[in-house]
């Protein structure tokens, strides 16, 4: 049997994770109740996460959000400046439905230490209890709060970046465009396999519909919990690929997995950014699957991707070196 050169082989670590899932015979989220899906996710992600390495400090605070109190987890990395530190607003993945502060804790720790920065991660409202645009509104409020409380947080309000994975990557893209429209400077957007088109018609949905972790059926289940009506699919705040223009968006780092239903829409978003004059650093992990940055227990690709994002961020923001020298 000859393998098509257009379809790279799975990396051993990705194959191992898929094998673990098959051995556990975990029921697809869409086959049970919302409560069962959240419970299964909560029980499963610790077996995938990488090391929760120590940071210089870890705290939580609550701010007033548009729908009620919002919890923020704040990480200060080792070697982060005590004042005017670069800051990262990290928005967790989980299909807008199942993620939480714990599920992406190790990624936030890695960012804090690798970038010597302050990371803020919010527990934004989840669907279906809080449908679109609740999560968008929460993330927008957190960005505003970070800027207003910059002195208290020890960060530079002019040097805030946004990041996220999957649905969190979707929120980060949308927040970057909203900030552009509001005249708020976001220095960088760091996106891991972001969802950019809720139409779910890209060819990668066919190529990787089943058997590669995130399935087309599960992604439809996530989307349908998130939106209130079919017309929301065409709202650019759900599908940023449909935005009229991406010009003026912050420089972007995008990381993609080769065996991922979201691969094609991510590639399309990267091209649109470039076509609209936005600086883009694009990295591909051809043998990986969706969510690999949250699978650090099973191989080096997760930390490599975060490291690549930090390197791109430093390249986009020349003030990094000056801040460290000061």
Automatic annotation (TrEMBL):
Q: Which Pfam families match?
A: Abhydrolase_3 (PF07859)
Question: 4Fe-4S as a keyword?
Answer: no
Alpha/beta hydrolase fold-3 domain residues: 88-293
Q: Which GO terms describe its molecular function?
A: hydrolase activity
> Where, by residue number, is the active site?
166
UniProt KW Hydrolase keyword: yes
Keyword set, alphabetical order: Hydrolase
Q: Which family does it belong to?
A: Belongs to the 'GDXG' lipolytic enzyme family.
Q: What is this protein called?
A: Lipase
The top of its lineage is:
Bacteria, Pseudomonadati, Pseudomonadota, Alphaproteobacteria, Hyphomicrobiales
């Amino acid at each position: 049997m000859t393998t098509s050169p257009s379809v790279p082989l799975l990396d051993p670590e990705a194959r191992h994770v898929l094998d673990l899932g098959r051995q556990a015979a975990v029921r697809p989220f869409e086959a049970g109740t919302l409560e069962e899906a959240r419970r299964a996710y909560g029980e499963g992600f610790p077996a995938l996460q990488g090391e929760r390495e120590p940071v210089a400090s870890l705290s939580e605070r609550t701010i007033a959000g548009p729908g009620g109190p919002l919890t923020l987890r704040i990480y200060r990395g080792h070697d982060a400046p005590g004042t005017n530190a670069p800051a990262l607003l990290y928005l967790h993945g989980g299909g807008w439905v199942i993620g939480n502060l714990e599920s992406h804790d190790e990624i936030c720790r890695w960012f804090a230490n690798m970038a010597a920065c302050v990371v803020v991660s919010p527990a934004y409202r989840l669907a279906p209890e809080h449908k679109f645009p609740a999560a968008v509104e929460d993330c927008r409020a957190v960005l505003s709060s970070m800027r207003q409380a910059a002195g208290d947080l020890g960060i530079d309000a002019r040097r805030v970046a946004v990041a996220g994975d999957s649905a969190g990557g979707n929120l980060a893209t949308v927040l970057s465009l909203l900030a552009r429209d509001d005249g708020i400077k976001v220095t960088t957007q760091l996106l891991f396999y972001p969802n950019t088109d809720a139409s779910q018609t890209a060819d990668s949905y066919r190529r990787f519909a089943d058997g590669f972790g995130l399935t087309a059926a599960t992604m439809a289940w996530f989307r349908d919990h998130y939106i209130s009506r079919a017309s929301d699919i065409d709202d650019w705040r759900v599908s940023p690929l449909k935005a009229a223009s991406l010009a003026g968006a912050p420089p972007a780092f995008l990381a993609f997995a080769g065996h991922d239903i979201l691969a094609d829409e991510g590639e399309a978003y990267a091209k649109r950014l470039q076509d609209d004059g936005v600086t883009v650093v694009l990295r591909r992990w051809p043998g990986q699957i969706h969510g690999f940055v949250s699978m650090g227990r099973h191989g080096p690709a997760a930390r490599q991707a975060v490291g690549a994002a930090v390197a791109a961020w430093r390249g986009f923001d020349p003030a990094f070196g000056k801040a460290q020298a000061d």
